[in-house]
Design goal:
The complex is a heterodimer of chains A (138) and B (141). In chain A, 22% of the residues lie in helices and 40% in strands. Chain A is an alpha+beta fold and 138 residues long. A 7-stranded antiparallel β-sheet of chain A has the order 2-1-5-6-7-4-3. The N and C termini of chain A lie close together (9 Å). The termini of chain B are close together. A 7-stranded antiparallel β-sheet of chain B has the order 2-1-5-6-7-4-3. The chains are: A alpha+beta (138), B alpha+beta (141).
Chain lengths: 138, 141
């Protein structure tokens, strides 16, 4: 596992930062969707909410691989590559992040219904900012 | 091959050349290596070139370019918070390092940033999906 630097943790925890998750199936077909619920459970683990993840969910359960990227204006960001750590549909982690995401989206006028929270155990992470693109940070 | 509807083309091309615009859509592109490692990066240069193709500019693409040597499949997401966006899946079918396409993009890129580009990739669009909450995951074309 790899530990993200604090500035990357802060960016993943910023509700205004745009986050996406890329996954792949066994035939190497890619899926890439926004994941605004993504946050850091700790400095080694991304946590995210499943409302209706569809192909992302199927790919996570099949190949376990995913990369969650985060971006803030003007052009800063990171990508964290890792392995899927499973779903939780009850308990304190589910309660905390499902509630946080519901409230965050409600403030933007969007209603969501969390079904579970998933985790990604980070194995490596890179800057995707133009000035340090590809620089390994963890 | 699939044809992107006008609203998809409009969102892909919105904010091109204005990286500081606070409400511009953010564009990401994913590629995959032979050992299933997924690369997911911001692709600010992404633009629609007609209804059936997208173009990307190579300015030190690194792993993205490396992955494309082995697997031409890509997924692109254009997303405007809080909830407007599309996912476009396709294949890189051309790579220009000289000639009229390269020169045109080099000229456009130079107007935004005085730098040289290394190449231009052309992505043929195969599928487009909505990312809006009311029909998330719905295939449009």
């Amino acid at each position: 596992m790899a530990k993200l630097p604090q500035e990357a943790v802060d960016m993943y925890n910023d509700p205004e930062a745009v986050k996406t998750i890329a996954t792949v199936d066994k035939q190497k077909n890619l899926n890439l969707v926004p994941l605004m619920s993504a946050a850091m459970l700790d400095e080694e683990t991304v946590v995210f909410v499943d409302c209706d993840l569809g192909k992302t969910k199927a790919n996570l359960e099949s190949t376990k691989r995913a990369t969650v990227a985060v971006h803030t204006l003007p052009m800063f960001g990171y990508q964290a590559k890792g392995m899927f750590g499973g779903w939780q549909d009850s308990g304190p982690v589910f309660d905390k992040y499902a509630t946080m995401y519901k409230e965050m989206m409600a403030a933007k006028g969007v209603t969501v219904t969390p079904k579970a929270v998933g985790t990604l155990k980070i194995q490596e992470a890179y800057s995707i900012s133009p000035v340090a693109r590809g620089f390994k940070v963890a | 091959m699939a044809k992107m509807p006008p609203e998809v083309i409009a969102l892909v091309n919105e904010g091109l050349g204005n990286a500081d615009a606070p409400d511009r859509p953010v564009k990401f592109m994913a590629t995959v290596s032979n050992d299933f490692k997924v690369n997911n990066v911001v692709m600010a240069s992404l633009m629609a070139n007609g209804e059936e193709t997208l173009m990307i500019t190579d300015m030190f693409l690194g792993k993205t370019k490396e992955n494309l040597k082995d697997n031409k499949q890509v997924a692109v997401t254009v997303f405007k918070p809080p909830a407007q966006g599309y996912q476009i899946k396709g294949r890189v079918t051309e790579w220009h390092t000289e000639g009229p396409v390269f020169k045109m993009i080099q000229s456009m890129a130079y107007q935004r940033m005085p730098t040289s580009i290394l190449g231009v990739g052309v992505i043929t669009v195969d599928e487009v999906y909505s990312l809006s909450p009311e029909d998330a995951g719905k295939q449009i074309v």
